[in-house]
Write a structure and sequence with these properties.
single chain, 527 residues, five-stranded antiparallel β-sheet, 1 helix, 41 strands
């Protein structure tokens, strides 16, 4: 007779935001977020006004938030990696990683030293990346370093200019790319001319290079790792086009050459990958394009350009704001020369059709949190938007930073999201805001019932008996195993579809082997 054991495993998802644009650098967090913010704004957990100067975002991991700032130390302006307590905002440690990068002076002489009352943004533009034990930093002057998560001590530090002849983008803003971390490797474009190989993968363990490939000049963009048509690859936005390399070996897979010519000033927005389509954009009178990647007879092709837009049409040009992709649409801030008034746009990825546009978001940053659009505007507002391609639907708004004529500042970066909290930076400080969603009732797997000798009915309920919502059903799954000692994540998922009954219970029928001695079941809920 078949022995049965049923369990309920209510998964509590708390996703770290361990690097620039999140766990997989696509700007997406699976964590739930409240869509009903109080009229006076959500709870501000902490403010840290010592986190000034620069456009580095937060990386949040292991109960700490990490960012880069400029700070005067011993009479010199230094680039400093700072760790703060994610729950309180209290400074834990601060470790210098080199001379601070800066802005070239603007038309009225502001910039260059971080002391201008207009605060044009002098300081780091890169965001740290966090492993289990280390914080990886790529400085404005191309120093790659690994710092201890606990105390900020240096594990290793590599001056990429001295070691490999690396150089910065020639436009005057120094390096702005963040280190792209993926399973023990760090991907960086070195812009070196010493060996005609500029695209590198470094090991997190000791900073040695694992592979290097191609001869492509760098931009201010952060590399992107994505799986396209089943192959994991790393995409570099170079001066002349998007270059894709095999993630493990560095072998070239394909290259897309920009239709607007090479990048002469700056390109800050990273490529966006959705299925086998990618989107790229560059400002300063360049353009945007979407391309479908194909793989035929062992060869990769990046020749299926779905659409392009070139100067003087600048509708989709983004200077550094990388959009997010959701259900075939792009959502993001698109601005070329306009400050503060730049719009939040929604466009269809496959066709380039502009679905809607709403002004006054400026040059901030946009991410996707549990299917909701979260934007940080240039003037310091957090805005939550429903991703509806048919209309702009604003759900909530909060003025996170207050700027004035005597307290100049701006937000030229993306927010971070982890464990129900938004972490955001301006040139005047950092903030943490609680927008956690009320927890849904945990799930309960009821006693299995035999329908016949080979079929078993499994029923999922909530622990308090409230009906399961239809929006929740797609996230629920039932897993089964013959070896309960195995890790829960390895239990095979039953492929039979859960069906929601009128009484709010979810049911599925599972076929069993009559000769099987025992079977273990558990219910789980994905984010």
């Amino acid at each position: 007779m078949l022995g049965l054991l049923w369990m309920c495993h209510a998964v509590a998802f708390v996703t770290d935001w361990p690097q620039y644009r999140g766990p997989t650098t696509d700007g997406i967090s699976p964590d739930p977020i409240s869509t009903n913010w109080p009229a006076n704004g959500p709870t501000v957990v902490w403010r840290n006004m010592s986190l000034t100067n620069g456009f580095s975002s937060f990386a949040v991991s292991q109960g700490r938030a990490f960012t880069l700032i400029s700070r005067t130390i011993g009479g010199q302006l230094r680039e400093v990696c700072v760790a703060v307590d994610a729950a309180t905002g209290t400074n834990i440690w601060a470790s210098p990683v080199g001379t601070a990068p800066g802005d070239p002076p603007d038309s009225v002489g502001n910039g260059g030293d971080g002391t201008s009352p207009y605060n044009t943004g002098d300081g780091p533009r890169s965001t740290p990346a966090v492993t289990d034990t280390n914080v990886i930093v790529l400085s404005g002057h191309m120093v790659l370093a690994s710092l201890n998560v606990t105390n900020g001590s240096t594990n290793w530090m590599k001056d990429l200019k001295t070691l490999y002849g690396a150089s910065e983008v020639g436009s005057g803003w120094n390096n702005a790319a963040s280190p792209r971390l993926d399973n023990g490797l760090i991907f960086v474009n070195l812009n070196t001319s010493t060996n005609n190989q500029t695209l590198y993968a470094f090991r997190t363990t000791d900073g040695s290079w694992a592979w290097r490939s191609q001869n492509e000049n760098l931009t201010h963009t952060t590399p992107v790792v994505a799986t396209i048509l089943g192959t994991q690859q790393v995409l570099f936005a170079t001066v002349t086009g998007i270059v894709s390399l095999d993630r493990n070996t560095g072998a070239k897979l394909w290259k897309y050459t920009y239709p607007w010519g090479s990048i002469s000033t700056s390109m800050g927005a990273s490529p966006v990958v959705y299925s086998n389509i990618f989107f790229c954009t560059a400002a300063y009178n360049k353009g945007s394009a979407a391309v479908r990647i194909n793989f035929t007879n062992g060869t990769w092709y990046a020749t299926n350009q779905l659409w392009k837009q070139t100067y003087p049409d600048t509708t989709y040009q983004s200077i550094w704001m990388t959009p997010v992709a959701y259900q075939g649409y792009l959502y993001g801030q698109f601005a070329n020369g306009s400050y503060l008034t730049g719009p939040l746009n929604c466009l269809e990825l496959a066709s380039g059709s502009l679905m809607w546009s709403t002004p006054d978001f400026g040059k901030g940053g946009t991410i996707l949190v549990n299917r909701y659009i979260l934007s940080l505007t240039e003037d310091g507002q957090l805005v939550l938007v429903n991703p509806d391609p048919n209309a702009y639907v604003e759900l909530a708004r909060f003025q996170a930073f207050q700027f004035s004529e005597t307290n100049h500042g701006k937000c030229w970066n993306s927010p971070a999201y982890s464990n129900g909290r938004i972490y955001a930076r301006s040139t005047r400080g950092g903030i943490c805001v609680d927008v956690s969603a009320a927890a849904a009732a945990p799930l309960k797997l009821l006693s299995p019932q035999f329908l016949n000798s080979t079929q078993l009915q499994l029923v999922v309920s909530t622990a308090n008996g409230t009906p399961i919502d239809s929006n929740r059903l797609p996230k629920i799954e039932v897993r089964a195993t013959n070896t309960p000692g195995a890790s829960a994540s390895t239990w095979p998922k039953l492929t039979n579809q859960l069906v929601l009954a009128t009484n709010g219970l979810a049911r599925l029928t599972n076929t069993i082997n009559p000769g099987q001695s025992r079977q273990f079941y558990r219910a789980a809920e994905q984010p």
